[in-house]
What we know:
5-stranded mixed beta sheet, single chain
Amino acid sequence: MKISFHKVKITPNQPAYLCGYEGRNQLCSEVLDDLYASCLKIIEKNEVYVLYSLDLLSLDPELLEQMKRRIVKHGVNYDHILISTTCTHSAPETMVNGIFDDPNHGASPGYREFLVNQMEAAWLGCGEGVEVEVSYAVQKIDGCYGNRNGMELPCDKDVSCIRFDYLKKPIYMIVNIGCYPTVLGSENVKISADLFGAIRDSMRELYQVEVFMMNGAQGNVSNRLYRKSRDEQELQRMNEGICSQLSDLHFKPIEKSGICVKDISYKVDNQKSLIELAKKRDRIIQLMNNADEKEKASLKFGLNYLEMNQRQMKAPYEIISTRLLSIGNLYLVMVGAAMFTQFSIQIKAAFPEHKVLIWGLTDANAGYIVAEDEYGDNFESMLTKFPKGEGEKYAEYIINQLKEFIRDKEKQR
């Protein structure tokens, strides 16, 4: 197995609207820290696989397609190109009309084309790669983040790290964390990769490797109940709290038995979803009638987002992009949505003999996949496109598909 890595800056070179929080209507140009597109190229038996991690909130299907088609021109199989975002809320808008469907606050002119060009530059910078050994470590993180709907609620706090060594020396590392990287709040007007950018810099210094950040099942996980403020000093405090617990990882070798990718995308009936959205819309309006001004602003945001979902759901089915990727006996479940942490716990528990990771926000973002026991008046439930109980069906589907994937792979040995 050969690996190569390259990253390029995707910090905008002109003022931009920041994406993620409603109400930031000013153009921003000050940079707290640079944004990057990281590219990890894996070559196995003359097959090339390309993994991307971008310091952005999300990508729309049209932009995602442009990026993939640009890399396909270099002879890469379309199905072997995997693109994700870290979900920072302090990066520029990438959608033409913005995430809130407002044409006055969308992507800056030329930024989408710039991103496509930089994705290609990251690929071209990778080179031929070197033969590597692969190892794996897991560390539970305490006191820094958790289920944002209640500290007592379930949360997968495992950080998984995949290390690639060349001539017995570590050169690259994947860091997988299932958590929103949002320390900086809506009042922040500086461009930043936020918590994942800080972790990447610290881990690179700790282990003297290039780091590829990979979000997990972060749908209801953040530092909301753990942070003391939402400023730059708190960003550093949270980063130090996490990385201090990652400073002495114990890596174990991963069995190298080839790489496989399988598409197992999942369909949800939009008619059922639209009925649920109509009920939620009525519920939000009811709650707004008895809310204070701060609560009203939050509910208004939810209502706007819900109505945008209603307008966009024109097809009979919503597709949740889902793929499986194996690297030896390590299995990545790539989910094109913000999956709740309960499902990460459930999926991992179904495979005690294997190493399984969730890679969220990959190749799409279909929104929140909410656990039934947290379905209610919370933010995620109001915004999800999917009916109550759909998340449980989806998780079981993934488990069954992954069992079949593992069986098929073991037969081929």
